Amino acid sequence: MLLVPAVLVASTTLGYDLNFRTSVAFVLSGPICLGVSALYCYNKKVSREVLLQIVASMSYPIIAMTTHLFLFNPSVKEVLTSTGSSFETSGGFGPNQVSTLLGLGMFALTVRFFMKSPTLFLKVFNLVLLAAVSFRAIVTLSRGGVFGAIIMILAFLAIFYGSAKFRKRQQIIVSIVLLFFVALVTWTISLNQSSGLVGNRYANEDAGGREKKDITTGRVDLFLDEFDGFKKNPFLGVGASGMKQSRLEEEGTIIASHNEISRLLSEHGVFGILILIILIFTPLYFRSGHRNNVFFYAFLAFWFATINHSAMRIAAPAFIYALALLNVTHDKRPLHRKQLKQKTD
């Protein structure tokens, strides 16, 4: 219901250069997807084993996508010529979105490595897959997905290590050392295959090694522009896709928002503030009474990081946010009691 006022405002403000139906659907499909997913998952009981299967299932299409990327672009050196995000190393798709999904795959495979790799073969197998996915994420030269993955992994390991007993903690430390070694090797290979451009990208330098002025590649300017839109229209906002209309009139080009928070504020006004309060405090309140989800903070971190660098262009942050609202229960083994047989004389 909080999204409706922005649609009504958009119906009166959007110009003929923007299609009303597609423009509104573009900016509202993500929030609606999040709402539906969250309502379905809220307090839904699942065992930890089922949750691990869900995380594993997320990795399968990402592994398939990684295979496609290797087939589509087997040689990174041949296509990387600058430090800008690369469509060629992203399989022809948007680097930001591809990097985000590959980052999610990095997290899923890290979870498999720590929690579902009882044998040496499985540990090596999952580490090889993790290295392959990480390499393809790094060479997209889109940093958001990689940083998001690192934040997720750190959040997961903090909770996983903190809830483990002493003996399990020793095993986790050994696994962390192995993970760090694989990460170092993957980074070195990425530097080599990109002729050092990866290092320049993450150091905020151009191909010639000169420091760039804006580390956010224009995102801060968009954020400030949308915040100005909120200040000018604090109650109802400028309407769904209103900022695209504003930039089209002022600059002559259609530029979509990269930050869902500033978009909510500018296009929904005070209703956007209410939406953000609900989205942030609902899972935190839920967490206070349900502490068995070891991935809670990792899921919430992925959602928050993604909407800040890629808005809601893909359904992944909405789905992952909903998983944080699951009520994870401990697996209980059924007890089999033997019946006593009465002796007969």
From TrEMBL:
Keyword list, A-Z: Ligase, Membrane, Transmembrane, Transmembrane helix
InterPro entries per the UniProt record, alphabetical: O-antigen_ligase-rel_domated (IPR007016), WaaL-like (IPR051533)
Principal place of residence: membrane
The keyword Nucleotidyltransferase is annotated on this UniProt entry: no
Domain of life: Bacteria
Ranges of residues in domain O-antigen ligase-related: 130-277
Bilayer topology term: Multi-pass membrane protein
Gene Ontology CC entries for this record: membrane
UniProt xrefs under Pfam families: Wzy_C (PF04932)
Ligase is among the record's keywords: yes
One GO MF term attached to the UniProt entry: ligase activity
Organism in which the protein naturally occurs: Bizionia argentinensis JUB59
Name listed for the protein in its UniProt record: O-antigen ligase domain-containing protein
Annotated TM spans: 25-43, 50-72, 92-113, 120-139, 145-164, 171-190, 268-286, 293-308, 314-330
Protein location: Membrane
